[in-house]
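thread from #wetlab-drylab

HS: before we spend reagent money on co-crystallization trials with zinc ion, can we at least see a predicted complex? here's what I'd submit
DV: go for it
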Amino acid sequence: MGFFSKLKNAVKKAVKAVANVVKGIVRNIVRIVVEVIHRLVNLGLGLIFWGREKKLRVHIVILHEPGQAPLVTEQNADDSFERAKAILKDKFNVRGYGFGKPHITTLKEEAPDRALNVECGAGGYFTREYGAAGSFFASHLGGWNVLPVTFMYPITVFVVAHVTHDGKEWRGCSWGILADYVVLTPTGINDDTTLAHEIGHACSLLHRDSKSNLMFHGWDRGTSVTGWQRFWFRGSRHVNFY
Ligand SMILES: [Zn+2]
């Protein structure tokens, strides 16, 4: 390869990297603005329609390791969603709906390594979200292609191979207000509470120390929530009356 074509490739790569960073920052800012506006709107509507059933939409995308079978079956994902739906309805009076037709998809294309093996700790945030993996997740989100007409903000669940937090294996990860997606491992999506727990994080709930609480970190958690958690969850941009 000649000097100029090498240079051209390097410039192309650099432009793409910068574009990923800019897109990542724009995504973060849009999420924060939308969340603040929706919390205010939900607060107002919540005063009028206090306690009435609300809706939350979920889209599920199943990944695979290079050359391997999908990480879980669509039936596994649907069963998990049904378990999460039961918890959401019971604890928050929020009804879960599948978003997209179909609402569960098995991805044929290869995912970037950082999308398949997700580092959940703060240290992994920028290299993932502002790199190829962030763009990959963003391009497969349910809902954003039809925005802003619908004002729905579905949560997209990606089933990935591994989630680590500072080297420890976790079952799932969410970035709260900053993203419209969560990631779960096959073990996480097949257990009883991790999907509902990560949806809780996506709706801005933080960890609790009480083991009986849905927001306890360990997978052997319970499903109880406090009145404040119920109020705060219902105010999220992902949870609406329509
Ligand atoms: Zn958690």
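DV: The chain is about 45% helix and 15% strand.
HS: ok that's useful, forwarding to the group
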